[in-house]
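hey team, just a heads up i'm posting the complex here instead of the shared drive bc the drive is being weird again. everything in one block, sequence lines first with there labels, then the predicted structure for the whole assembly after. its two chains so it's a bit long, scroll down
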Amino acid sequence: MRELLCKIFSFLKYILLIVSFGLVFYGIINTYGRLEKPLTEAISIFVPFGVVLLLFLINLFTRSKYTSTSLLFNFVSVFAFVVIIIICLRSMFDTNMILFHRYGIDYNPSFFADNLSVICAMLYMIGASNVILLICDILDKDKKNKKHKNTTKTDIKKNKKYLNYNKIDN
Amino acid sequence: MKEFFKEFFKFLSDSILIICLAFASFLFIINFFHYREVSYQYNTDLTQNKLYTDFKENLSSVEEKMQSVDYDNPEFALTAKPIYEYFNGCKDVLENSLFYSLDKDNLIDDMDIYNMNNELLKEYNNVCMFNISNNILNMYNEGRISDSFEEVYNNIETKREIAVMYAEFLTKAGLGNSAYNFSTDTFKSSIYNENASYLDLTIKNYSMIISILEDVADWYVVEFGGRSV
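-- predicted structure starts here --
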């Protein structure tokens, strides 16, 4: 059950990352477009998405054991992206908030902007956790390599002993 | 040693993830509660609200006073008749307002309160409160300004400023319903229902318009002769 959930969340997090990035990008275009500010000023908001995407790709290509088998990591990633999507959808569709109607753009930039800092914080936390788990992976691989070297040495010694026994028998 | 570091890093990663989970859970729960708060509709029967019913009754009595003057008299063609037309314009606008038809529906939300106060600021401030008194003053040149209206004018200006100040406060407060601290009595842990409170203030604001019209009507019947009751 645990492995199944891990696999499901592991798969979902890639899709939800792209969806949440798309919605945040749409929000930034609306917010900065209304204020007539250039999009280059919003780079600090896109950086955490880039960092998380890069780390997820590294996980994928290195087949990181710790990130793929950590239920907590995958669940928290999925949950954080779901919350980001909820916030973006409320900014786009919740007409009960009066600011939605005020600017005539059918969007509530104030509500969206109020939540941006927490969105970036969550993404940086997921990124930091991912980096730490990759370090664990590296440490584990070093240990495995050393173990593999030690076992081959003992194997050679065993084989030599066996050969010696065979010679004596003969 | 490596085992120790591995365990330590795993513990550190889990700690960061738990903090992230706390942030995400907080945002999830507060968004759920906030959605319930902003979609709250205040259930009230305005036909039982004395201040609201007085608004309509007083508007009718002001109309009766204004109509008691013989404004069709040719002597009053340039004075009483135009003043009556200004009043009529204000009355028509008020009778077609969102506030006037509010008692038809028992459910009132934030958007209604915002729109009512916005209308007051953009329309009734001009048509009813400022226009009538300003046009009366300009109707008489300096040598013929009636002392009695000057006193009424000062009174009207004070009331108009109060109504505008409260309407500005209520429109700004309405815009603040996007903030997470907006509260009604959806969840009984909150003790202050902003929706109900703002509705009361809005009704008082509109009563101020009627009070201004009453002052003008009282002066009108004294100046041009008519029934003051």
